Amino acid sequence: MMRTVLDMIAGRDAPQPAGKPGIGRILADLDSHQCRFPLQGDGAATRFCAAGVSEADWLPGFPGRCYCTFHRSLSVGRGTEAERAAPRVLERLAG
Ligand SMILES: [Zn+2]
User: Fold this and answer.
1) How far is the CA of 32 from the centre of ligand 1 (A)?
2) 8-54 pLDDT, tens digit each
3) How far is the CA of 8 from the centre of ligand 1 (A)?
4) pTM of the predicted model, to two decimals?
5) In which domain, by residue range, is 58 found?
6) Cα–Cα dist 75/52, whole Å
7) Which of 83-92's residues contact partners 24+ apart within 8 Å by CB, and which partners?
8) How many structural domains are present in the chain?
């Protein structure tokens, strides 16, 4: 079955970190090498994906390099227009 953009935005197919239930973690709870892709919320309440990022992929400061494989594929590379628009859609949903 094709994965829709809305499914991806909802994080339904995103890898889930072990431990805490619920969607993502706030920034204060993130360790190094955990995906910084914002899933929902605003400001200090923003919840990030927090899936593990491998040492080889972790390069904060470079586009997409503080995201897990799943979210990096959403944010960089040859994504579709809908995929590139996903962060903007996310902002609208969060707002
Ligand atoms: Zn992620």
Assistant:
1) 13
2) 666 655 665 555 456 899 999 999 999 999 999 989 899 999 999 99
3) 10
4) 0.57
5) 5-94
6) 17
7) 83/5, 83/8, 85/5, 86/5, 86/8, 86/9, 89/5, 89/9, 90/9, 90/38, 90/39, 90/40
8) 1
